[in-house]
Amino acid sequence: MTRDERREKLDSFGRAPALLSAALKQFPKKMWLFKSSPERWSIHEVILHLADSEATGYIRCRRLIAEPGSAVLTFDPALWAGSLGYFHQSSKEAMELIRRLRRMTHQLLKALPESVWFHSVEDPRRGRVSLEQFLEIQERHIPHHIEEMKENYVAWRRLHPPRKPATPSLRRARTSGAAPTITIKAGAMMLMNS
Fold first, then answer.
1. How far apart are CA 74 and CA 97, in angstroms?
2. Residue 173: is its pLDDT beyond 70?
3. How much is the average pLDDT of 162-180?
4. Rounded to an integer, what distance in angstroms lies between the CA atom of residue 97 and that of residue 28?
Protein backbone atom coordinates (compact mmCIF):
# COMPACT_ATOMS: atom_id res chain seq x y z
CA MET A 1 0.00 0.00 0.00
CA THR A 2 1.40 3.41 -0.95
CA ARG A 3 1.41 6.34 1.46
CA ASP A 4 -1.35 8.02 -0.56
CA GLU A 5 -3.48 4.86 -0.48
CA ARG A 6 -2.90 4.58 3.25
CA ARG A 7 -3.85 8.23 3.74
CA GLU A 8 -7.11 7.61 1.83
CA LYS A 9 -7.84 4.52 3.96
CA LEU A 10 -7.09 6.49 7.13
CA ASP A 11 -9.44 9.29 6.06
CA SER A 12 -12.19 6.77 5.29
CA PHE A 13 -11.51 4.99 8.59
CA GLY A 14 -11.84 8.28 10.47
CA ARG A 15 -15.08 9.28 8.70
CA ALA A 16 -16.89 5.98 9.31
CA PRO A 17 -18.67 6.94 12.58
CA ALA A 18 -20.10 10.05 10.87
CA LEU A 19 -21.27 7.88 7.97
CA LEU A 20 -22.91 5.55 10.47
CA SER A 21 -24.67 8.44 12.24
CA ALA A 22 -25.92 9.81 8.91
CA ALA A 23 -27.17 6.38 7.83
CA LEU A 24 -29.00 5.83 11.11
CA LYS A 25 -30.94 9.07 10.59
CA GLN A 26 -32.44 7.50 7.46
CA PHE A 27 -34.01 4.62 9.38
CA PRO A 28 -37.09 5.16 11.57
CA LYS A 29 -36.31 4.29 15.19
CA LYS A 30 -39.45 2.14 15.31
CA MET A 31 -37.77 -0.34 12.97
CA TRP A 32 -34.39 -0.59 14.73
CA LEU A 33 -35.42 -3.84 16.45
CA PHE A 34 -36.80 -5.41 13.25
CA LYS A 35 -35.05 -8.57 12.03
CA SER A 36 -35.69 -9.76 8.48
CA SER A 37 -35.02 -13.33 9.66
CA PRO A 38 -34.05 -14.98 12.96
CA GLU A 39 -30.40 -15.36 11.95
CA ARG A 40 -30.04 -11.71 10.86
CA TRP A 41 -29.29 -8.86 13.25
CA SER A 42 -31.52 -5.86 13.83
CA ILE A 43 -30.09 -2.37 13.38
CA HIS A 44 -29.92 -2.08 17.17
CA GLU A 45 -27.88 -5.30 17.38
CA VAL A 46 -25.57 -4.15 14.59
CA ILE A 47 -24.82 -0.94 16.50
CA LEU A 48 -23.96 -2.94 19.64
CA HIS A 49 -21.82 -5.33 17.58
CA LEU A 50 -19.95 -2.37 16.08
CA ALA A 51 -19.24 -1.02 19.58
CA ASP A 52 -17.85 -4.41 20.70
CA SER A 53 -15.83 -4.67 17.51
CA GLU A 54 -14.49 -1.15 17.93
CA ALA A 55 -13.44 -1.95 21.52
CA THR A 56 -11.59 -5.10 20.47
CA GLY A 57 -10.11 -3.27 17.46
CA TYR A 58 -8.84 -0.56 19.78
CA ILE A 59 -6.84 -3.20 21.72
CA ARG A 60 -5.70 -5.08 18.59
CA CYS A 61 -4.35 -1.89 17.05
CA ARG A 62 -2.33 -1.10 20.14
CA ARG A 63 -0.95 -4.64 20.28
CA LEU A 64 0.10 -4.31 16.65
CA ILE A 65 1.98 -1.12 17.47
CA ALA A 66 3.43 -1.97 20.90
CA GLU A 67 3.74 -5.78 20.82
CA PRO A 68 4.37 -6.92 17.24
CA GLY A 69 4.49 -10.69 16.83
CA SER A 70 2.11 -11.32 19.72
CA ALA A 71 -1.23 -13.15 19.47
CA VAL A 72 -4.40 -11.08 19.46
CA LEU A 73 -7.81 -11.62 20.96
CA THR A 74 -10.62 -12.70 18.66
CA PHE A 75 -14.28 -12.92 19.50
CA ASP A 76 -17.35 -14.71 18.19
CA PRO A 77 -19.77 -11.91 17.22
CA ALA A 78 -22.86 -14.15 17.27
CA LEU A 79 -21.95 -15.56 20.68
CA TRP A 80 -21.35 -12.08 22.08
CA ALA A 81 -24.64 -10.80 20.64
CA GLY A 82 -26.54 -13.69 22.22
CA SER A 83 -24.72 -13.72 25.55
CA LEU A 84 -24.31 -10.01 26.26
CA GLY A 85 -27.96 -9.00 26.08
CA TYR A 86 -27.67 -6.56 23.18
CA PHE A 87 -31.44 -6.02 23.32
CA HIS A 88 -31.10 -4.40 26.76
CA GLN A 89 -28.09 -2.20 25.97
CA SER A 90 -28.19 1.41 24.84
CA SER A 91 -27.55 2.07 21.16
CA LYS A 92 -26.92 5.74 22.03
CA GLU A 93 -24.10 4.80 24.42
CA ALA A 94 -22.76 2.30 21.89
CA MET A 95 -22.61 5.05 19.26
CA GLU A 96 -20.70 7.29 21.66
CA LEU A 97 -18.23 4.47 22.34
CA ILE A 98 -17.74 3.90 18.60
CA ARG A 99 -17.11 7.61 18.00
CA ARG A 100 -14.63 8.00 20.86
CA LEU A 101 -12.64 4.80 20.27
CA ARG A 102 -12.47 5.36 16.52
CA ARG A 103 -11.33 8.97 17.00
CA MET A 104 -8.54 7.92 19.37
CA THR A 105 -7.37 5.11 17.09
CA HIS A 106 -7.55 7.34 14.03
CA GLN A 107 -5.41 10.01 15.70
CA LEU A 108 -2.90 7.40 16.84
CA LEU A 109 -2.60 5.84 13.37
CA LYS A 110 -2.12 9.22 11.65
CA ALA A 111 0.90 9.95 13.85
CA LEU A 112 2.77 6.66 13.35
CA PRO A 113 6.18 6.46 11.72
CA GLU A 114 6.43 4.51 8.48
CA SER A 115 8.26 1.54 10.02
CA VAL A 116 5.40 0.68 12.37
CA TRP A 117 3.03 0.00 9.45
CA PHE A 118 4.87 -3.24 8.80
CA HIS A 119 4.34 -4.60 12.32
CA SER A 120 2.17 -7.71 12.47
CA VAL A 121 0.43 -9.96 14.99
CA GLU A 122 -0.92 -13.49 14.95
CA ASP A 123 -4.67 -13.68 14.50
CA PRO A 124 -6.08 -17.18 15.17
CA ARG A 125 -8.56 -16.84 12.29
CA ARG A 126 -6.56 -14.88 9.70
CA GLY A 127 -2.98 -15.82 10.48
CA ARG A 128 -0.36 -13.09 10.39
CA VAL A 129 -1.99 -9.64 10.05
CA SER A 130 -0.03 -6.44 9.49
CA LEU A 131 -1.08 -3.02 10.70
CA GLU A 132 -1.88 -2.08 7.10
CA GLN A 133 -4.13 -5.14 6.77
CA PHE A 134 -5.79 -4.28 10.09
CA LEU A 135 -6.54 -0.79 8.73
CA GLU A 136 -8.06 -2.25 5.54
CA ILE A 137 -10.27 -4.65 7.51
CA GLN A 138 -11.43 -1.98 9.98
CA GLU A 139 -11.94 0.64 7.27
CA ARG A 140 -14.50 -1.64 5.53
CA HIS A 141 -16.30 -2.83 8.67
CA ILE A 142 -18.73 0.02 9.38
CA PRO A 143 -19.65 0.58 5.67
CA HIS A 144 -20.31 -3.17 5.37
CA HIS A 145 -22.76 -3.02 8.26
CA ILE A 146 -24.42 0.14 6.90
CA GLU A 147 -25.25 -1.88 3.78
CA GLU A 148 -26.65 -4.63 6.02
CA MET A 149 -28.84 -2.02 7.76
CA LYS A 150 -30.11 -0.77 4.39
CA GLU A 151 -31.10 -4.33 3.45
CA ASN A 152 -32.92 -4.62 6.77
CA TYR A 153 -34.75 -1.36 6.08
CA VAL A 154 -35.84 -2.55 2.62
CA ALA A 155 -37.21 -5.78 4.15
CA TRP A 156 -39.01 -3.79 6.87
CA ARG A 157 -40.45 -1.36 4.31
CA ARG A 158 -41.88 -4.28 2.31
CA LEU A 159 -43.78 -5.39 5.41
CA HIS A 160 -44.68 -1.83 6.48
CA PRO A 161 -45.38 0.22 3.35
CA PRO A 162 -45.93 3.96 3.76
CA ARG A 163 -49.48 5.00 4.50
CA LYS A 164 -51.62 6.07 1.58
CA PRO A 165 -52.36 9.77 1.35
CA ALA A 166 -55.69 11.11 2.54
CA THR A 167 -58.66 11.15 0.16
CA PRO A 168 -58.60 13.96 -2.44
CA SER A 169 -61.45 15.92 -0.84
CA LEU A 170 -59.72 15.86 2.55
CA ARG A 171 -56.41 16.91 1.00
CA ARG A 172 -58.15 19.82 -0.76
CA ALA A 173 -59.74 20.95 2.49
CA ARG A 174 -56.43 20.79 4.32
CA THR A 175 -54.52 22.74 1.70
CA SER A 176 -57.20 25.39 1.11
CA GLY A 177 -57.29 26.29 4.78
CA ALA A 178 -61.06 25.86 4.89
CA ALA A 179 -62.44 23.63 7.57
CA PRO A 180 -64.33 20.65 6.15
CA THR A 181 -67.99 20.33 7.03
CA ILE A 182 -69.28 16.99 8.17
CA THR A 183 -72.96 16.35 7.42
CA ILE A 184 -74.87 13.34 8.64
CA LYS A 185 -77.85 12.30 6.48
CA ALA A 186 -79.96 9.25 7.05
CA GLY A 187 -77.24 7.42 8.98
CA ALA A 188 -74.51 8.23 6.45
CA MET A 189 -71.73 10.68 7.11
CA MET A 190 -70.58 13.00 4.31
CA LEU A 191 -67.54 15.23 4.18
CA MET A 192 -67.98 18.51 2.34
CA ASN A 193 -65.61 21.43 1.78
CA SER A 194 -66.86 24.89 2.71
1. 19
2. no
3. 62
4. 22
Percentage of the residues of the chain whose pLDDT score is greater than 70: 85
CATH code of the domain containing 60: 1.20.120.450
- Domains in the chain, number: 2
Same domain, 96 and 173: no
The strand pairing partners of 71, in sequence order, are 122
Cβ-in-10-Å burial (0-12, 13-18, 19+) of 190 comes to exposed
Q: In 3D, which of 14, 104, 99, 109 has the Cα closest to residue 50?
A: 99
Do residues 44 and 138 share a domain? yes
Helix, strand, coil percentages (3-state) for the chain, rounded to 5, are: 65, 10, 25
Domain limits for position 172? 166-194
Identify the residue with better confidence: 55 or 165.
Answer: 55
Q: How far apart are CA 120 and CA 158, in angstroms?
A: 45
> How confident is the prediction for the chain on average, in pLDDT?
88
Mean pLDDT throughout 7-29? Answer: 97
- Provide the 3-class DSSP secondary structure of residue 121: strand
CA angle 131–137–140, rounded 5-degree value: 135
